[in-house]
Specification:
Length: 191
């Protein structure tokens, strides 16, 4: 059994991910480490929790103190490109409860205002699909680390006292047609 001590991180729980090359990444408070077993090194010092690793090995971090989304690509050891772009319409208090990447390589970001979904290029532009009550979510205040992708590609999300199960279609982020709608009622002047 190997262990490594990264010091006290206050109230932050460590977040551990593995990239496509098998490298381990650990976010402990405001520091990101890369390594294996007892051979760890500090990759960078930035608010990095939560974070996710996509299929290309890109790390996506969304710090609580600084809600800008950071894309971090490993060019060489300890050489990084950092691009920030928070979802349009999100607020400073809208920090992430989870940040995950599914098998389609879509980023899922759970917040106090609902769920944001985007492909990498969309995320870099801040162009996220925002899911909330207006899209049919029964709850919007997501829970910490409450994202799970099932074997069929559907996703499970915890929010408030609910568990939400979504089965996104292939054109979910880029619909080919307008959705079918119907008018069930209307009112004039609030009556």
């Amino acid at each position: 059994l190997q262990s490594a001590d990264f010091g006290h991180s206050g109230s932050w729980e460590p977040n551990l991910q593995v990239d496509a090359s098998g490298n381990l990444w650990l976010c402990q408070g405001e520091k990101m480490y890369e390594g294996s077993e007892a051979n760890w090194h500090l990759a960078f010092g930035h608010d990095c929790n939560p974070f996710a690793v996509d299929r290309q090995g890109t790390l996506w971090c969304d710090g609580v103190e600084n809600p800008a989304l950071l894309e971090i690509r490993n060019k060489t050891v300890n050489s990084w490109t950092v691009v920030g772009s928070a979802p349009k319409g999100s607020t400073a208090s809208n920090y992430s409860h989870f940040l995950n990447v599914d098998r389609r390589n879509w980023l899922w970001r759970g917040t106090t205002e609902g769920v944001y979904v985007a492909e990498a290029a969309q995320a870099l532009r801040g162009d996220w699909l925002h899911l909330d009550r207006s899209n049919g979510l029964p709850a919007v205040d997501t829970n910490q680390r409450s994202f799970f992708e099932d074997s069929d590609g559907s996703v499970w999300i915890g929010a408030d006292n609910s568990v939400i199960h979504l089965s996104p279609t292939a054109d979910f982020l880029h619909p080919k047609a307008a959705p079918n709608i119907f008018i069930s009622a209307f009112s004039i002047n609030g009556g």
